Amino acid sequence: MDKSALSYTVRTLEADLGVRIDGRATFSTINMMRQAALDGLGLAYLPLDTVENYLENGMLVQVLTDWCPPRPPYHLYYPSRLQHSPAFALVLKALRAP
User: Which of 7, 34, 40, 82 is 20 to 30 A from 60, comparing alpha carbons?
Assistant: First the structure.
């Protein structure tokens, strides 16, 4: 058994699929993984919001879409009764935009 192979389980509501990946590259950041995929080094499992622009312009292609779980929304908890700084108010406005 190859010790460098990684095992993953991908799931849908209907099934689980065990996958062994024989890879030689390990990355510590999402940006490095995305760049490796852009450079054609292989597949990368990344959050959709980090690659949406690359998918839209055709630089990356989404695979295994039936096995991709829906993206949960982001949540932000903050004290609503306090006066917020102008910078924080802009962040709130941007996050609330459709």
Answer: 7
- Nearest CA to 10 out of 66, 72, 50, 71 is that of 66
pLDDT for the residue 22: 77
Is 23 within 8 Å of 9 (Cβ atoms)? no
Other beta carbons within 10 angstroms of residue 27's beta carbon come to 13
Scan for tokens 């490796």, then name that residue. Answer: 36
3 token code pair: 């010790």
Q: Which residues contact 57 (CB under 8 A, 6 or more apart)?
A: none
In the chain, what are the domain boundaries? 5-70
Q: What is the pLDDT of residues 47-57, one digit of tens each?
A: 888 999 999 99
d(C-alpha 86, C-alpha 96), whole Å:
15
Q: What is the pTM of this model?
A: 0.59
